[in-house]
UniProtKB/TrEMBL annotation, chain A:
This is Amino acid ABC transporter permease. Residues 23-223 form the ABC transmembrane type-1 domain. It holds the Pfam family BPD_transp_1. The chain crosses the membrane at residues 23-46, 58-81, 101-120, 202-223. The keyword DNA-binding does not apply. PROSITE patterns: ABC_TM1 (PS50928).
From TrEMBL, chain B:
CDD domains: TM_PBP2 (cd06261). It comes from Bradyrhizobium agreste. The chain crosses the membrane at residues 20-44, 65-87, 93-113, 154-178, 198-220. The keyword Cell membrane applies. Pfam families: BPD_transp_1 (PF00528). It is a multi-pass membrane protein. This is Amino acid ABC transporter permease.
Amino acid sequence: MFAVLLEQTADGQRYIDWLVSGLGWTLALAFFGWWIAFAVGVVVGIGRTVQNRAVAALARLYVEIFRNIPVLVQMFLWYFVLPEILPVALGNAIKQIPPPWGSFFPALVCLGLYTAARIAEQVRAGIEALPKGQVEAASALGLSGYLTYRHVIVPQALRLIIPSLTSEVMGIYKNTSVALTIGLMELTAQARQISEATFQTFTAFGAATLVYLALALIAYQGMALIDRAVRIPGTGRGEDAIEPAATHAIQPIDSLPDAMEVVK
Amino acid sequence: MNSLDFSVVLQAWPYLWSGLLFSLALTAVAFVVGLVLGTCLALVQHFELPVLGRLVRGYVALMRSIPLILVLFWFFFLVPIVISHLGGGGRPVPIGATWTAFITFGLFEAAYYSEIIRVGLRAVNRGQFEACQALALSTFDTYRSVILPQVLRVASPIILSQTIILFQDTSLVYVLSLTDLLGAASKLAQLNGRLVEMYLVIAVVYLAISSAASQCVAFLRKRYAIAGMRR
């Protein structure tokens, strides 16, 4: 069934090379986009919890804007609109970036900042889930606000939210496919191109689907590994798999596992 | 660049409005189909039916692992083939992008809603089941009158948040060249060259609708929490 992937294309490659190149762009976008998202997301998430009203409002505004505009529309804003509203010289310079990079950078910024808004909400939830005593103990020890966040709050919050970050990791690699709308030849775009060139739609989409499934599995297992390595003892959700016969209250929705906060 | 001129948007408004109505219709249909089908899928998994349960689990995992755009491409290709088979063979019936979008979103969202309901089912207190047994309710009545209403109520904030995400995701039908809100804007932008104004305005429309809906969800969540539940 997949034999067609080994056939020669018009440009002297094999179809499977197209897929591999698409996978490369997908991975590059997801990987670098993730670090942008994580860095911005942690800062904005912290911003939402600080006392300073102006900072908290700005952080909230960021989350509202980036979470409530569809990622495809954001993609168009970065790709089509941004060069037009910048000063002419700068806008033209952006438009002249050569082909793959001219789509790659807007897509990278778009996915990074979009995912950052979602991570920020997780970080905020993690910080708010910490017992008050942590902050009180830190101030009793004479730690400044900065040191409290740096050494007490953020490290614990990040360890708490790793299970829910899994769905953000899954989200960002799936959202890389949106970059095909601005002309980046990532995995889904390559699959479509192969299907159009060979009429073997089943094979082309099937191969791409298997690759995405493998990525999902790797992302899931990788995050589970990280979670097990850094989990705060006693806060594990591992017990969740066992039927909670002993728990008698209906669990609050917020504590439901990561399956709940779903991303596409 | 030329200065911004939003009067073109005003002229284009009827077309954009019809696009928005399509986006909303797609959201509504996908919500209803997805929720009903998703509840069925969740129950199949909940009852741990032998073969069906595994199939459903595989389906849900698959849908959650691949991008929605790829799913749209898949269905655009597969649905005509499946329909022709159901219709007693013959050649594939082209059903058009609109139907593809409705079918795809319904089936795709079912996977996400089923995950929400499945976890909700697991969270129901065991005593509820025991009480139903003590009252000699049939399995059907147990789920219909006691269990599912609680699950839906508990899970409703998440179901609604998911529906807001669904509304935003309907913009992806752009890849099928359909005329939803984004599709309408991009078609007009190609005609009149005013893509800056077009995209900025629809971004604001999406932002306004989604964030108003999120505020409503937050309000409902406070207002209709089941008494005595830790929130």
